[in-house]
Amino acid sequence: MARQATQDSPNRIPLQNGHSGSEKPNTSRPSSFSQRVLKKARAVQTKFTNPWRELQRNRREKKETRKPPKKVAPFTLSHRGLLLLLVFEILIIIAITTIWVLTTKRNGFVDAPDTPTSFTGSQTLHEKFLWGLSLFWTFIPSLIVSLCGALFAATLQALQDCQPTIELSKPASHTVQETSKAKLSILLDYRRYWFPFTDSCHAFRNKHFIISACMVIKWLFVAIGPLASSIISVGNIPSSKSVQVTITKGLDDSTNGSWWSSTRPSFDSTSAILLNNASTLSWSTKIYSVNPFSTESDIAGNLTADTTTYSATLDCAPIDANFLLSVGNVTKDSSDTVYFNFVDRGCEIIASINGFDASYDGYVYSSTSYFNCPYEVNRARLILMTGIYDASSLYLFENFSITSCLPNFWRSRSRVSALWGANTLGDPGRIINIVPDISTVERWWPQFWQAWMVRIPQYQVSDPQNELVEDMFGFIAYSYAKTPNTAIDFVQAMNDTFSVLFATFATSTVYTPLAESISSTGTLSQPGNRLFVVFLPASMVTFVMALSFLATIWIAVYAYQHRLIIKEHVDLILGHAILLDGNDGVSTFIDTVKAGFERQARDAIAAAYAKKAQKFGTVSSLAVDLEVENAVKKGDLVRYVEDFENLKDWDCWVERNGRLRIRAPQLALSSP
């Protein structure tokens, strides 16, 4: 009714355009500009936000989707792990080889600072730091080699863990008749053989040669770890550089030179050097007088240059005094002057001793005499006569000796090394080494030689403890020959005394400034600490690293050949559970092991209870069963399997579908 009333409403007026009167015409105006812009902005927003929302939804779906983990080989057996080990080994070998070559070519491969002897002895923080720095070249090589050994041991451990799986998988690509044995697969355990080289022998018997070799190398790493700390050592090795050397003085042997100066200071120095082990003068040794040279550099070190060196020697021969007595060449006149007449190498000599009385009885006599000789028989002789005065003797002496010497003077060009710079403590020119050029050695007669040698016997000893009149040369030579713990005779004593006396006299007296200095090139060597490679430890470490490198390549090839099998390996107890779950033959093998162990335990326990029954009467079988059950729970089944070859020889293999199969050998089938 209501609907009808509505239809019949008088307000419903028909319109000319066909619309009913109840329908209002669309009187709304078109949208404004701001509304159109807002509408377009919302469309753009929807266009860009929808893909982002879609991406986020896809990510959430991927996270919610749980995929099984990808099977991968252990990192140490993967190509990345083996490449890391190979690079590590190569770098160590290259480093040792490089520093060894540098040590050989440069006498050390790098400079090292001076370090105090100990950390506690260091006074300053800087010294303590240097002492700690010295640990760098001992600790770092040992650490690097130890890390390499640890990485190699980890690789070996992974290979040992995968070896049972590799053994089980061998028949998968061949035939079932080539199955592995239980002792090489499910019972294989290299971890218990910890003693050095025992594990290697065990692996060798199993024909696992790669594991056997790597086990030996593993123990070699243990040995070279501490040895690596001795690869690098510190040595005091000089470094050299060329410098300009100047010679400003030369030996002046002219007659108007300074040779006439007193020789007594030279005698005093000679006595101190030979009798009291004093140091020689600067620019001289016990043999040579060195023409001094210098350089402008003040750097402390050893200065080496070519210069002229001078020396003097005596060619001495002993004269037999007893022979002179026997042939009548010793005479004495009324004034107790004793004459000795002899010929030494073509020169006739008459030597005499006089001026003695009974108060000199028991005193030592040592005197030197100079004699001119013809030019053709070497010009001169220096005679040393020694003995003990004995007033009761026919010729007033006992233990008498005569030594006749020919003087020789030499000069040559020599390479001389002397201290220079601050480390000489104000005394430059201390000779370190002299290497004469043999081809330049020549005999030489300085112009002052004869006048100088004539005066040598004239320098007398002034000693209140000795009333004899002795010359200084004879006193020094005699005292030097009689020095305790020496094995030199008067011939050697004369030669050494003359050499030191000339070197000291020439160095301190006869060098005068040159009119024009002489320049040449020399070498200044600075002593300093340098690091160098010790050959024996370095060669041993390099040898072991080379073995490790070859073994790593072997492992890489072996791992590549068994890459598919190694990826299937699952470590720890979870892997064992997956491998053993629901596989044929496993339960049979375990039951056989338990049954055999239980039978063995029951026999042992029953025997023990039988002895008790003899003493205490009958024993309950329930007690025996409980004892056997307890023994099975606590017993070591693995050890039991090891004791029975029959159980170790069960065939074991993994088929292509991943199922573990265990089959008893033919002999085991007939066993109870």
Describe this structure in words.
- There is one protein chain.
- This protein is of the alpha+beta class and 672 residues long.
- It has helices at 2-7, 33-64, 79-106, 125-133, 136-169, 198-205, 209-227, 264-276, 321-326, 449-455, 472-481, 490-509, 535-561, 563-568, 572-580, 586-616, 621-634, 637-643, 645-648, 666-669, and strands spanning 110-112, 180-181, 232-236, 239-251, 288-290, 301-319, 330-332, 338-344, 347-353, 364-372, 380-389, 397-420, 431-436, 442-443, 511-526, 529-533, 651-654, 660-663.
- Strands 4, 5, 6, 10, 11, 12, 13, 14 and 15 form a nine-stranded antiparallel beta sheet that branches. A three-stranded antiparallel beta sheet has the order 1-16-3. It has a three-stranded antiparallel beta sheet with strand order 2-17-18.
- Helix 8 packs across helix 12 (490-509).
- The two termini are 105 Å apart.
Layout of secondary structure:
Layout: H1 2-7, H2 33-64, H3 79-106, E1 110-112, H4 125-133, H5 136-169, E2 180-181, H6 198-205, H7 209-227, E3 232-236, E4 239-251, H8 264-276, E5 288-290, E6 301-319, H9 321-326, E7 330-332, E8 338-344, E9 347-353, E10 364-372, E11 380-389, E12 397-420, E13 431-436, E14 442-443, H10 449-455, H11 472-481, H12 490-509, E15 511-526, E16 529-533, H13 535-561, H14 563-568, H15 572-580, H16 586-616, H17 621-634, H18 637-643, H19 645-648, E17 651-654, E18 660-663, H20 666-669
Helix pairs in contact: 3-5, 3-13, 5-7, 6-7, 7-13, 8-11, 8-12, 11-12, 16-17
